[in-house]
Design goal:
Radius of gyration: 21 Å
Order of helices and strands: HHEHEHEEEHHEEEHEHHHEHHEHH
Organism: Effusibacillus lacus
CATH topology of the largest domain: Rossmann fold
Number of domains: 2
Pfam family, one: AAA_lid_2
Distance between the termini: 33 Å
Family: Belongs to the MoxR family.
Strand content: 5-15%
Protein name: ATPase AAA
Mean pLDDT: 88
Number of helices: 14
Number of strands: 11
Helix content: 40-55%
Low-confidence stretches: 1-5
InterPro entries: ATPase_AAA-3 (IPR011703), CbbQ/NirQ/NorQ/GpvN (IPR050764), ChlI/MoxR_AAA_lid (IPR041628), P-loop_NTPase (IPR027417)
Shape: globular
CATH superfamily of the largest domain: P-loop containing nucleotide triphosphate hydrolases
Structural class: alpha/beta
């Protein structure tokens, strides 16, 4: 395992290359998952069944050397099935905490919109605070900790739409999409005699991940870029088609994600293109359109395109660090 801290870019590209041994042609999605990991955020994967959402999460966890748990969300799932439960031990005459699947580095919340809002809310404290409270006792979660939740955008029967407060906890919302014909042929070839994840090796360890997370915090953000982020967020709130725009939490998410993306791409500073690339992924699930806009066929992506056209991109001045 390569733990050369002097070459963080090379380390992260090793992770991407390792994941691509299993997930073919989706390096951009892998980059975004790493953005969330290094930012201390979470990812909502929204896509149709069978495109590799679950396998992406499993492969990422194995490449990073992280503990992995999967929670299959169903209508009868209880909050204690997620967080854990205290059980009375007759021998010791004390209550003992039996941790739930949330106690892992990487947690896959599969089909998160198939369970009740009460159970969905069991994730809120974990995602925001990094701990859970069971029977009045607070338990600190593992570090790093990242939730990757999946949902099907097509099938709505028997589902519970995620409330705005829950959506706002996800740093990014991404989709994988169908593979190209060439990539799908490659997938068939790789799985003809077994699944490639069985031979996958660990690339990083928890100590290295923590180092990389700390290094991301040193990425430089020029004041004009911070102002650009706020102007974009403000423009979403003032758009005529928007009922609820991006919150300050969304602005913070865009800032942190831009820093992580710049770091992954081998830079120690953020450029406006980093921000522009991440706006749809960080703001798209935080915006609620007015009902008349939806009836007119306006989409969130249409609004974000208008916003990006209306906000001028900052240009570095002479003498300032780029």
């Amino acid at each position: 395992m390569d733990t050369n801290y002097d070459k963080p870019y090379a380390l992260l590209q090793q992770v991407v290359a390792n994941v691509e041994k299993v997930i073919v042609g989706k390096s951009e999605a892998v980059h975004y998952c790493l953005v969330a990991l290094l930012s201390g955020g979470h990812v909502l994967l929204e896509d149709v069944p069978g495109v590799g959402k679950t396998m992406l999460v499993r492969t990422l966890a194995k490449s990073l050397g992280c503990s992995f748990k999967r929670i299959q969300f169903t209508p009868d799932l209880l909050p204690s099935d997620v967080t854990g439960v205290s059980i009375y031990n007759q021998k010791t005459q004390e209550f003992e905490f039996r941790p739930g699947p949330i106690m892992a580095n990487i947690v896959l919340a599969d089909e998160i919109n198939r369970t009740s809002p009460k159970t969905q809310s069991a994730l809120l404290e974990a995602m925001e605070e990094g701990n859970i409270t069971v029977d009045g006792v607070t338990h600190v979660l593992h570090k790093p900790f990242m939730v990757l939740a999946t949902q099907n955008p097509i099938e709505y029967e028997g589902t519970f739409p995620l409330p705005e407060a829950q959506l706002d906890r996800f740093l990014l919302k991404i989709s994988l999409g169908y593979p190209s014909m060439r990539d799908e042929i490659d997938i068939l070839s790789r799985q003809e005699k077994g699944h490639p994840i069985e031979q996958l090796e660990q690339v990083l360890d928890l100590e290295t991940i923590q180092y990389l997370k700390e290094a991301v915090q040193e990425v430089y953000v020029e004041p004009s870029v911070r102002e650009y982020i706020v102007k974009v967020a403000t423009a979403t709130r003032e758009n005529r088609n928007v009922y609820l725009g991006a919150s300050p939490r969304g602005s913070i998410a865009l800032l942190k994600a831009s820093m992580a993306l710049a770091f992954i791409l081998g830079r120690d500073f953020v450029v406006p293109d980093d921000v522009k690339r991440l706006v749809p992924l960080t703001f798209g699930h935080r915006i609620i359109l007015k009902s008349e806009a939806r009836l007119s066929g306006v989409t969130v992506q249409d609004v974000l395109q208008d916003v990006m056209r209306s906000v001028p991109v900052p240009i570095a001045r002479d003498g300032e660090r780029r």
